[in-house]
């Protein structure tokens, strides 16, 4: 069913300033510093199984849960990011670090293939007794993704072989056979990893195991009930995070019957990603349909304007339709990252631009906000309104978001293109040089642009030989007035628009040039009034970037700002800010007038004072002095 | 220092429809039904000291605290309300009920005078070891007020004598003498009761004990620290309500040094009431000054527009300046009642109309909202914004507010007048017939009016004999355009206005008539923009009544209503609602437009639809179908 395929990120070299800066930061600062933090925070220490185990680094919480249960995944995720870094450029020190970890994992692995540092270090007798809460399969998923990336970067097979033994053990333990447990992960992730392994090796058994986990999920009798009874627990008591239900892990019913996006946001998005992958690999219309229903649900009722997901800290996830509070928004960085994964899979099913549009939104806003300018500080929660107390942190007891953002940025160029039958699609913009393959032909695409600061994009095509193919250039929703030329001659953009892509099909020859001019006019965004928190408020955006008012740029206290509906919004090139950005300014009012004296109440309304509003891209906030920030600004 | 005195409520017969309805409801329904609820909920059972004690009716909370600690106070408060009811009309059944309680209290009292049903029933060995948290003195205060009221109603002295023995015991236990504990109540109240006893009996020792409690409060070394150490507790751990500080009970420093209204709102207001009483009785300028500073603080930074106090449930009290959230407002009914007590004391110091203005506001709004139309349901918390889930309850594990509202309404006519040297002041309006004494003369005042529904007030004066005196008629702030006539001839209201009162001094003769016409034009009230929760919102008021939009009167969901700044507000006589009220209506908009389809975000703003807003007096809400309610309505 998948008609388009992604392009391996190593085929696309980033040359534009925006993404090459982020990529360099991640390669030179984030990935190396993360190894140090894994070390300093005791995560690497867990590789040395000791008897008795050292004291817990992260104590049990009041639910009897420690973050150490999922440290294996953090190791796996760092190796994945490191693998991507090595594919950009080999680095002996990083390889030494990974090799040392892999040797320890190999040494730790049990003869039957079982591998889990927590259980092996603390309570091996309880292995595989609590899939619901304990992340054993999730951990294997992330380790497997790390093994794949490291193999692809170095050709070294040891880690992959460790993981294949582990998978064989899992395959013998779980399944529908008479001596097997019908279990599946409490926290989805391994499904994605198994499909990636299948795509690497072509081994059907890996795909089948992924499909088993997805198909079995939420079936009755409920496995999580059965395993709870088996270990002497009351299955009606679902302890962790007080969620008290199986919606938390999207295991409340079979996945094909799910039509509402519920529960823990990252689990949800990882599961939808795997479902979309399986829909493509297995040509499974029922999975595809379920994905489409869930996509529509989340994007029409439960998505922040920044491409953030999950309003609630208590379940790290979803609540009710249109419940999108700004100051208490959870919006875990991982959720936006996982949404990018899902969106890419949906996009490649049939290249519907809505998926690329949402993918770009999440990438430039909800994802990038998770990493500081210097590449060494993080947001776990990406709020849309802050009183100034929400700041980036250098590490976290649950460091999942840190390595998630590095693995995505390190491989971001893989999201720029899709290749399908007779077509190359440009999903994302930004200067790059891409060596693509289409139906056996090599085609080089060169893009020059300063996107997203500028909407001017020059794409030159360098095909190897002759033959007709379509170049499909995405025209974002906000750029429907965009114009294009082919070798200087106007192109009928509206007439050639298909599913959000400008389609130019021809026998491309060396040096053909398409130039796009996507209008970057600042725009106002309004939320459906059912989103009560955003009523009487407006968000500003320019191109794919959502903006915010941060205190450091504004004389008026940010919560006091009022933007009138007809105020002109001016773009300013601020070469002095960061590496040069476009900021937005507008005449505004401040409600915090000072003519009230001691009155607490009076019969005459406040008289707002004139002021100026300045907004910067949301992803850049909290890189300077601490202060309030708002995405949704009062309009009046 | 007190230049004015209140008038005993039995001297003022309420004849106007507004207050006579509330009074009758309290006398015929509230007071009798409260006895039944005291009985049904086991509170009266605690009078029968049993060994072993029966199981707790209200279990210990997670702080190790049970509401049963203060059930004595509920008994005392009910007797006080019952005593007021008996002063309106004797009732053999109520007297029988009170007498039975008094007999049991007398039987329970220990030989040394100690009386506390909790400690005597459960842990007598621990008496007087935790004044900070355990309400022994608070309970005695309320019992004493009950004893005074019952004596005044019936002439029966038994209860008063029980309480006098109890006070003698307290007086010997606490004080500055060498063998005494320098203790004072954790929850203030007994001070007010002692001053009332002094005013009844003239015994200086009662006033001195009140003054001791006030003077000792907050001194170092801190008594609450010392008693905590003595009972083996860590004084730095202040358990109850997690307040963790002595601000909670206004014991953080000596009362004369306090300049911010902090902590538990009811404790605060009871203390200020006693301080103002003592300022008058002892001619104590330092206490008066402290009261004035605290009054200014609360009314300019920490008072709800309804005359509610205390935004926070966690400490049942105050937080920070301008922190007045509406949907989470605590605004305990008791706090507004206690504020009325304080305001009356401040008013009588020198008849400054600001105190009467605030007293009237709290009385008509924050207090009356606490009692249902039928007199048998209550609000403990008086929110200013509800999603529909906040409803009145028939009883409460901490039933303090129930009997507090009955004792105030049963004696409300005592707040209408003040009498000072050569002057009678009319503080509150509403038809009544008052038999007053001024400098030895009897003067009858008859007021005819349908206040607060109408601003037309006819006051006729019937003096006994001749002599000049001033009649002072309060002109509320919202009625500064009000007009007046004396025997049909215009009076120069602005010219004769002193401290918010229209002063007419003359040799009044039988049948002199003053007619006031106070304009009842609906008005808009705005909050200082520092109150962030009320920004871009407006409250409506008419006369002393604050209004609210309740769902049952509005087709548009209340949270969707937008009132434009220039919309005309129309008054409607609604004889069909309750006993007949004035409602307010205005053309308005509804933001909940239905033209959004599935869009979650878009670049065109919502287009509000036309609708009508209907508002009713706040005190009447939640007497019909459940639904959302807002005092502060979006203005735009």
Automatic annotation (TrEMBL), chains A, B:
Name of the protein: Glycoside hydrolase family 127 protein
Domain Non-reducing end beta-L-arabinofuranosidase-like GH127 catalytic, chain residue ranges per copy: 12-413
Pfam families: Beta-AFase-like_GH127_cat (PF07944), Glyco_hydro127C (PF20737), Glyco_hydro127M (PF20736)
Native species: Devosia subaequoris
Entry-linked InterPro entries: 6-hairpin_glycosidase_sf, Beta-AFase-like, Beta-AFase-like_GH127_C, Beta-AFase-like_GH127_cat, Beta-AFase-like_GH127_middle
GO process annotations (BP): carbohydrate metabolic process
The Non-reducing end beta-L-arabinofuranosidase-like GH127 C-terminal domain, residue ranges: 522-634
Domain Non-reducing end beta-L-arabinofuranosidase-like GH127 middle: 424-520
